[in-house]
UniProtKB/TrEMBL annotation:
Protein's UniProt name: L-lactate dehydrogenase
The entry's keywords: Oxidoreductase
EC number, UniProt record: 1.1.1.27
Organism: Microbulbifer rhizosphaerae
Family under the similarity heading: Belongs to the LDH2/MDH2 oxidoreductase family.
Statement: the UniProt record of this protein carries the keyword Oxidoreductase: yes
Pfam families per record: Ldh_2 (PF02615)
Record's keyword annotation contains Transmembrane helix: no
Length: 350
């Protein structure tokens, strides 16, 4: 059974771990907050679950502890940075804050980042944006990663290429964070670790046969694109679009030989929009709220209502801040050795 932990204590615990491997207090706190936000909204494969790998990258030098991103281009309403393997959660948070600073003047700000160490859960960056009344679009790709096959193809071509979106809409935001693969790699790895099959045939083995066995992926197979075996051409097209936005606009990716050694480094595309640049905020909210209400009132197939993107995650965030964060059981198991190694007391469950 999953245990609950106080959100502030989890934040302090993760921040202390990052400080012990050489990050400043400010950067450690930013890192911890991003991972915590993911778990608060229920994105358990890319929240505190990713702390251990980030600690390892910082210790072995795959992530830079110090320094700033290099500015490659800046026109005010758009900018491009080279992170040169700065920790992803920290550098992307800086980009979001920079965009928010510029938004009152620009109305819309777009940014790309190349060679950012893994940025984890995209949705985790969006609460401060949507709480200010803005719209956000965020996506990333991984130049060195080939895990997702194309429709009709066997070889893995794309990375998972997640995309997150948030817009204010009344009681809760319209918010989602989805990958362009039928299932995320984190869920495949979790199933492999726990010795169980996937809920459906989401994979191809290295001969192109459909499979629900995580071992098929581990042994040179691929994950199907969104749309699955029948309509995967849609997911493959969207994957290509997102790689253009993140890699091509950023000017670095699959076309560069050196990118093949970048491991987990992400190419990032971020866009934040102020609806007031187009008209009154009330007009915008009237439309987004009506959309969510239409969704909520639609007839459902079973006992549960139709699922509106963002409704469940936003409610979970509020509930877990008040009642404690329910961590997936393996997360604290993975962090316990790091707590012992770095001499940081484990947080006590509620």
């Amino acid at each position: 059974m999953s245990k609950r932990y106080d959100a502030d204590e989890l934040q302090q615990f993760a921040a202390e771990l990052f400080k012990r491997v050489g990050l400043t207090g400010e950067r450690a706190s930013v890192m911890a907050n991003v991972f915590l936000q993911a778990d608060l909204m229920g994105f358990t494969t890319h929240g505190l679950n990713r702390v251990a790998s980030n600690l390892r990258w910082l210790l072995n030098g795959e992530s830079r502890r110090e320094g700033e991103p290099r500015v490659l281009a800046d026109r005010g309403n758009c900018f491009n940075w080279d992170a040169d393997f700065l920790p992803g959660p920290w550098v992307l948070t800086q980009a979001v804050e920079q965009a928010l600073e510029r938004l009152p003047e620009q109305g819309m700000v777009t940014a790309t980042i190349r060679r950012s160490q893994h940025i984890a859960c995209l949705a985790a960056y969006l609460p401060p944006v949507v709480e200010k009344g803005y719209v956000a679009l965020l996506t990333c790709s991984t130049p060195s990663e080939n895990t997702v096959s194309a429709q009709g193809g066997i070889d893995p071509l794309f990375s998972a290429n997640p995309i997150a979106f948030a817009a204010p809409a009344g009681d809760y935001p319209l918010l989602f964070d989805i990958s362009m693969s039928v299932t995320a790699g984190g869920y495949v790895s979790r199933a492999q670790r726990e010795g169980r099959k996937l809920p459906g045939e989401y994979l191809k083995d290295n001969e192109g046969n459909l499979s629900d066995d995580p071992a098929a992926f581990e042994n040179g197979g691929s994950i199907l694109p969104v749309g699955g075996a029948d309509h995967g051409y849609k997911g493959a097209a969207l994957s290509a679009m997102l790689e253009v936005l993140s890699m091509a606009l950023g000017g670095y990716g699959r076309g560069d030989e050196e990118s093949k050694g970048d491991d987990e480094a992400n190419s990032v595309f971020l866009q934040i929009i102020d609806p007031r640049a187009f008209g009154p905020q009330a007009d915008f909210l009237r439309q987004t709220t009506a959309l969510c209400h239409l969704w909520e009132k639609s007839r459902s197939e079973g006992d549960s209502p139709a699922r509106v993107p963002g409704q469940r995650a936003w409610a979970a965030r509020a509930r877990q801040l008040e009642e404690g964060v329910e961590l997936y059981p393996s997360i604290m198991q993975d962090l316990e050795p790091w707590a012992e190694k770095l001499n940081v007391p484990l947080p006590k469950p509620l």
